[in-house]
Amino acid sequence: MKRKIRFTLSQKRAVTGLLFIMPWLIGFLVYYVRSLVLNVRFSLSKIEIMKIGGYRATYIGLQNYRYALLEHATFNQILVNSIRDVLIDIPFIIFFSLFMAILLNTKFKGRGIVRIIFFLPILLGSGAVLESLEQATRNITGGASATIAELSKTNQINIDYFLYIFEDLGLPVALVDYITGLVARIFEIVRASSVQIIIFLAALQSIPRSLYECAKIEGATAYETFWKITFPMVSPLILTNVVYTIVDFFVNSEVVDLAYEVAFTNYDYGLSAAMSTLSTAVVCLILVIVSALISRKTFYYN
């Protein structure tokens, strides 16, 4: 008689999780692992394109890495700037996404239209539409800069004067720099928050209503309800959104543009592969550190 296999509850959950990620795992093994191996191989080689087609890879050790880190004119600066922008923008993107998700989760007229508006950047985030948006961003930024310059010229207004006033009022220099950096990238931040808003919105709608009813019966204020119920229940999705934001930010960063330019404009595939490998290693290190820090404060229901 054939014996039926019995799983414990933890084993059933492990199997369910494995089946859930199986499509991604198959795609990763089939398409990405080979690309990663080839990228590391190219980064350790000098790539020459043959006239008859194909390429020839000559092993040169860490020469491409040394050139990228010690001799290239802009790679280090672009990489550092990208890391700085990530560290500046992520807290505001997460806060803005959670704030908008809470607003969109409340009942008001036209809520469906407002949700569509915040979802539009995802639909418009590719191809010619994205190029048009980037052109519009440059025009808006240029127009705003021209307007400020014109105002400064005609009215003798200097934006640095206001920054000095804020510093004289006792605001920390780091806080002033943080705020000015956010204002300069407000369009990019709003556009980069769409997916995070949807994830937070789904998390808010999955919170059992009985928890809020109990809090209301106990006389909890809105402030207490947020910090004792809402925030702990959505905290696992904060980690998800932070990881997504970091990866999405670097995919669209200047480091990727530089690696692309080196590969397909200068035709230096080995150096481009070294730059890609270095930036990937930095992103993975940031993800490990951030995930370890946030996981300590994450609350998992059940």
Write structural notes for this entry.
- Strand 1 (45-49) and strand 2 (55-59) form a beta hairpin.
- This protein has a single domain, classed as MetI-like (MetI-like fold, Orthogonal Bundle), CATH 1.10.3720.
- The chain has helices spanning 9-43, 63-71, 75-105, 111-123, 127-155, 159-168, 173-184, 186-191, 194-205, 209-217, 222-251, 254-264, 269-295; strands at residues 45-49, 55-59.
- The radius of gyration is 25 Å and the shape is globular.
- It is mainly alpha-helical.
- It starts with 8 loop residues before the first helix and ends in a 7-residue tail after the last helix.
- The mean pLDDT is 80.
- It is built from 13 helices and two strands.
- Pfam families: BPD_transp_1.
- Belongs to the binding-protein-dependent transport system permease family.
- Its main location: membrane.
- Give the helix tally: 13
Content-based structural category: mainly alpha
Which band does the percent of strand residues land in?
under 5%
Strand order in the largest sheet: 1-2
Largest sheet: 2 strands, antiparallel
Q: What's the CATH H-level homologous superfamily?
A: MetI-like
CATH class: Mainly Alpha
Oligomer: single chain
The poorly predicted ranges are: none
How would you state the average pLDDT, rounded? 80
Residue share in helices?
A: over 70%
Order of helices and strands: HEEHHHHHHHHHHHH
How would the global form be characterised? globular
Distance between the termini: 38 Å
The tally of strands reads 2
What is the number of domains? 1
Q: What is the CA-based Rg, rounded? A: 25 Å
